[in-house]
Amino acid sequence: MNARDAELLRHKAFIGGEWIEAAQGGSFDVIDPADDSVVARVADCSAKDAEAAIVAAQSAFLGWRTTTAKERSRLLRRWFDLIMQHKDELGDLLAREQGKPLAEARAEIIYGASFVEWFAEEARRVYGDLVSAPAQGGEILVLKQPVGVAAAITPWNFPNAMITRKIAPALAAGCAAIVKPAAETPLSALALGVLAQEAGLPEGVLNILPTTRAAEVGLVLTSHPLVRKVSFTGSTAVGRTIMRQCAETIKKLSLELGGDAPFIVFDDADLDAAVAGAVASKYRNSGQTCVCANRFYVQAGVYDAFAAKLTVAVGALKVGAAFEPGAQQGPLISPKAVAKVEDLVRDAIGKGAKVRLGGGRHARGGNFFEPTVLTDVPPEARLLGEEIFGPVAALVRFETEAEVIALANASEYGLAAYFYARDLGRVFRVARAIEAGMVGVNQGGISTVEAPFGGVKQSGLGREGSRYGIEEYLEIKAVHIGGL
């Protein structure tokens, strides 16, 4: 670890512009999932720290909301510049705590920084309206104002980008923010705090609470009356709990929850492109993404050819720890995650699925799982209805367009979907018919700052990124003016 890496590696909470120990003492280990070594030991915050962060954020908000959009834009731009200056160090730190290959970790830093850059610009593009009043001598002014203190509860799979995607629009809108990062990956959050402080962000505008007491700290953030906005990325089960907890104080809420993305290959698809898109979507971050393909539906006429090509492509992936040259598949995040994927694969095989590739724990041991391809997966297999969160492609054969649309939509989730087809009429029909917040057509990547990110059904509420993302942190006020 070089000097700059060490400078970005923080062990304390960040509250009110100060780096402090947890109020009740105590700390926890951050573990490298590739070898179970301890990367760092970090302060373990409690409800008391959450309350202190809320007080600090509310105090800071009173001043921050009065700054000009131009000034907020300038500070966010400075934060973006610092992130980009230190993207390699941030990527190194992320790879150590999360386990993804170094190239992928550094790509996440650039992706995450794009949200800070985007919302630095959007800060100056929050527009209201002037509406004609129904009677003479009046006008109606529509204002957009920051909602207040915003809390972001973020996951471990993208510990940099999930923070910037939430915090950048909050700060751009004029909100003060509190981040509760996942216990598995707090170091990336704290490093972002170092650079935000260096960029000149006022004290208390950004607060960061590392903790293993997710339920305790989360309850404070979701129930405290001074927190006016909560943004959460994680499982649908936890999302339901957060929604219930926020109901008492009627908070503005964004939820980016579970996914069960269908990946459809029609018989007129470019199979080589479909295979490349499948690998990009399914095996990115070892399958630990909310938008990765979860169910592969392949039309009967190309099923065997697609399965063969996919097996070859997946078999060429190099499994390795983050810093091993050429590594493309890292470990899963924890032994619990490995056990879950193993159980889902065992269930599918027991019900008749065939193993074309992989199928079990990797020979490296630890948290590594083999990149896996299963064919002839029966409809009753659990992994067709549960989020796998591992490097397993489950292939199902279908006959008609109507059949596969029904299969794709037969899920409580509706986050992402993908399909490959050349017929233009089919492209529009299927894109409209699929129940998902995001659809990739002839491409396996759909995450970009320019487009709104979010789902329908039980995959969540609200949108992140794009010009719509800042609206989640704004309230609309109508001002009726008479006597003119």
Describe, in plain words, how this protein is organized in 3D.
- The chain has helices at 3-8, 47-64, 69-85, 87-98, 102-122, 161-173, 187-199, 214-223, 236-247, 271-283, 303-315, 335-350, 401-409, 424-433; strands spanning 13-15, 18-20, 27-31, 38-43, 129-132, 139-146, 149-153, 177-180, 206-208, 227-233, 252-256, 261-265, 293-299, 354-357, 372-375, 392-398, 413-414, 416-420, 438-441, 456-457, 460-461, 474-481.
- With 484 residues, the protein is an alpha/beta fold.
- A 7-stranded mixed sheet has the order 14-15-16-13-12-18-19, sandwiched between helices. A 6-stranded mixed sheet has the order 9-8-7-10-11-21, sandwiched between helices. The protein has a 3-stranded antiparallel sheet with strand order 5-6-22, with no helix packed on it.
- 54% of the residues are buried.
